[in-house]
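Ex. 9. Protein: Protein ABHD15.
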Amino acid sequence: MRCSTQTEGRALPWLSWTLGLALLGLLVAWGLWKKGRLFLSRGGQRATDGGTGGLVVGEMKGFAVGACRLICKPSALAQALAKNLSQLAELEADSWSWKAWPNLQTAVQFLWPPHEPLEFARDYLQLADKGLVALDWVIGPPASKARKVSHAPDVASVLLVVPNATGAITRNLHQLCRLALQSGYYPVIFNRRGHNGCPLATLKLQPFGEPADLKEAVAYVQFRHPSATLFAVSEGSGSGLLLSYLGERGSSSGLAGVACLSPVLKAQEWFERGTPWWYEWSSLLLQKRRISRYADVLREVTEVDAALGSRSLRAFEEALLCHGKSQKGGWEAYWDRNEPLRDVDEVAVPVLCLCSADDPIQGLPDGTIPWELFCTNPYFFLLLSPHGGHCGFFGKDPGTSWGHSAALESLRTVVEFFRTEEMPPRRSSCLHHRRPQGTSPHPEASPLARQLPQGTFSWQRSYTR
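Predicted C-alpha cells for Protein ABHD15:
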C-alpha cells in the first residue's frame, strides 16, 4: 500500500515563515512596549515576579533543581531525579537569556521553521479498523547517508514522540529529536489519522484523549524492536493522548519512562478558558486546512461546516467530535471519555511533567496544575520552572532547549535507578516496589508483542524530510 510521504513540515514552509515573521514582529513590538513586564492573557491579569502571577518558584516545597523546583511525593527515585537534574548547568537561570519573553519563546518554537530539518523514514501502519497512522523514524540530518537502509537498525532505546494536538512537526520537536539522536535514542514521531500528511483512510477522527491508535502503534514499535527499551515524550496538548494511554494501559503500557513538555493536564478547562489570540488563530488555521481536504466525506458523520467556520479551539473540537452521528452525548460526555487524567490512578510508569510558571498558553500555574496529584502519586514528578513559556525553555540561544536535556536526563535516571534496585514484581503504594515494564537489564519482547504473529501489521516504508 503506497501513500503520500509529504509531511506538513515540508508542505507548508511558506506558511510557517509568513506566520513566524508576522507574529514575531508583533510580539517583539509588544514586548518592547511592555519593557519586559509581560501580561499573561488570562483576563488581563498582570504577571508579577517575572510572569509567574505572584508565584515564587524558589520558595515552594520540593527539591531545589537549579532555578526550578522538583515537586513530588518523597521517594528514592525522587532523590535520584533531583540529584541528577541538579547537575545540569542548563537549569541555572543565569544562562536563560530569553527568560523575560515567554510569548516569544513559545511563538518561535511553534511557528518558526527548524534551523536544520531532520530526515525521516516513514512507516504507514494500518489499524484494526482499516484506518492509517504514520510513524516517522528520525534518521538524521539530510546529509546523512543512513537513510539508504531499508529497515531500522537494532537499537537499545526507542523514543516515541507525541506531537501537540495540531499534529505539526514543530521546531521544538526537531530540536528534541536531534538531541535524542545524539544521546543514543532512536526517535520515532507518532502521527495521528489525517495529520502531517498521513491520509484519512476512514471516517473516524482522532479524539483528544482516545488512546486506541497509540496502543496499536506502541505494539508495532515493540514488534519491530522487541529488545529495545521504549520511552515516550509528549509536546504540549499531545500530553492528553499520552497520559490517557498510560492510564488505560496501566502496568501494560510497555514504556519505561515518560516526559511531558508543558502538558495540558486539565484539558476541558483549557479548551473552555481559551488561549492567546495568536496561538488560537494559528492552531485553528492548521487544523481547518487539514480537515478541509476531507470536508465532502466528513459531512456524512460530523458537523464539518460548523468546524470550518469556528473561531475558537473549543468550538472546533465540539463541532467536529461531539455532535456527529456516531458521537454519544455532548461536550461534558466527550470529556468524560477524553480527559487526560481520568484514569490517573492506574498509571504505573514514572512521568516527569516539565512546566513553566509563565506559560502563556496554559495560564497561571495555581489554577492549571493539579498540585495534589504530584504530592500524593509516586509516579508523577513536576519540574516547575519560573521561566520558559510553552515548550520554549531557551538557554543561551533559541537553537537549543534545556527542557529537552532535562526530559532525556529524567528518562536516563529512571532506567539507571530501576536497574540498580531490587524490585519485586508487584504493585505497591510506594514507588520502591515495582519495576516499570521495559526496564529489565535483560530486555525481551513485551507480552503484547510476543502474542502478535508475523503479518499482524501492515506497513509501508518511505523516506521524507
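Check your answer against this statement. The chain has two domains: 8-266+339-464, 277-335.
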